[in-house]
Amino acid sequence: MPSLPETAPASKKNGLATRIVSSVLMLPPMVAAIWFGGPLFAALIVAMAAVLAWEWHGLLAPDLKAPSRVAIVGTALLVAAAAWNGYFVFGFFVLAAAVVAMISGKRDGLSLALLGFGPIYIGLPAVALVMLRGNFGFEATLWVFVLVWATDIGAYAFGRTIGGPKLMPRVSPNKTWAGLFGGMICAAAIGLAGGGVADLARTPGPVLALLGACLAVIAQLGDLFESAIKRRVGAKDSSRLIPGHGGLLDRVDGVLTAAPAAFAVLMSLRAIGALA
C-alpha cells in the first residue's frame, strides 16, 4: 500500500524528535548546575543518585521496602560524603554488603548480586561526576555530557535511518551496528570539538576524537546493561518519572558508565602533561 512507506519515516522522525526534545529539556538545568558547580552541582548529583537508587530497587525489588530505603538513603548520603572527602567512596562497598545481608534468602543469586551492585553502580559514577566538575571545571564537564548526548542521538538517527544487522537483539532489539558506529562518529566529532575547551587544548585533536569514540562505546555498553536489566524484569522503562520518556535511569544510563571512564582518562592525561 502506498501509505506504508510514508508512515514509517514519519514514525522515525517523531522518535528522533522526541530524543532531541528530551535532551534539550534536560539541558538548561543541567548546564546551570554545571556552571555554578560547587554545592549546587553536588546537590543535584546527590538528588539524582537518590532517584536512580529508587528506580533501581523499583525495578528489581519493589516489594522489599526496608532494604530499598536503606539503599536509597545510604547511596545519597555517601555521594554527599564522598563529594566532601573522596575516601567515603569505599562506603559504597559496605552499603552493598549491607543491602545483600538484608535481602539474603529473599532473592535468587543473580538478583541478590544486582541489588547489592546498585549502590556501586550508581554511587561511583555520581562521585566521578562531582570530581570531574571539581577537577576540570565547567567546560570539560559539559563536554562529557554533550558527548554522551551526541552518542545517544547519533546512535538513534543512524540506526533508524540505515537499519541493518542488530547489535544485541536478545538484549535490545532496536539497537543496530549502524547505530553504534553512528554514535561513535557523532561522539568523535564532539571529542574533536573538545580542542576548544581550555583544559583539553594541549591534547591533539585525533586523540580527543578517539577518546570521544571510545566513550561512545562505553556509553552504549551502559545503555545495553540497563536494557538487559529491564528485559530481565519485564519492564519497558525504569520508572514513569518523566512523562512520555520513562525514568531518569533511561536518560542517564550512558552517563553512568562514561563519566567514570572520562574522569579516569582525563586524570591520566593530566598526569602525563597532556592537559592544560
Total domain modules: 1
Q: What is the gyration radius calculated from CA atoms?
A: 19 Å
Q: pLDDT average, as an integer?
A: 89
Number of helices: 8
Portion of residues in helices? over 70%
Strand content: under 5%
Alpha carbon gap, first and last residue: 60 Å
Report the count of strand segments.
2
Arrangement of strands in the largest sheet: 1-2
Uncertain runs with pLDDT below 50, 5 residues or more? Answer: 1-9
Globally, the shape reads globular
Structural class: mainly alpha
The assembly state of the depicted protein chains is single chain
Biggest pleated-sheet summary: 2 strands, antiparallel
Helix and strand run: HHHHHEEHHH
Description:
Helix 3 (65-84) runs antiparallel to helix 4 (91-103) and helix 6 (177-193) packs across helix 7 (205-233). The chain is an all-alpha fold and 276 residues long. The chain has helices at residues 3-36, 38-60, 65-84, 91-103, 109-162, 177-193, 205-233, 248-271, and strands at residues 166-168, 172-176. The chain contains eight helices and two strands; from the N terminus they run αααααββααα. It has one domain. The N and C termini lie far apart (60 Å). 42% of the residues are buried. The longest helix has 54 residues, at 109-162. A two-stranded antiparallel ribbon has the order 1-2.
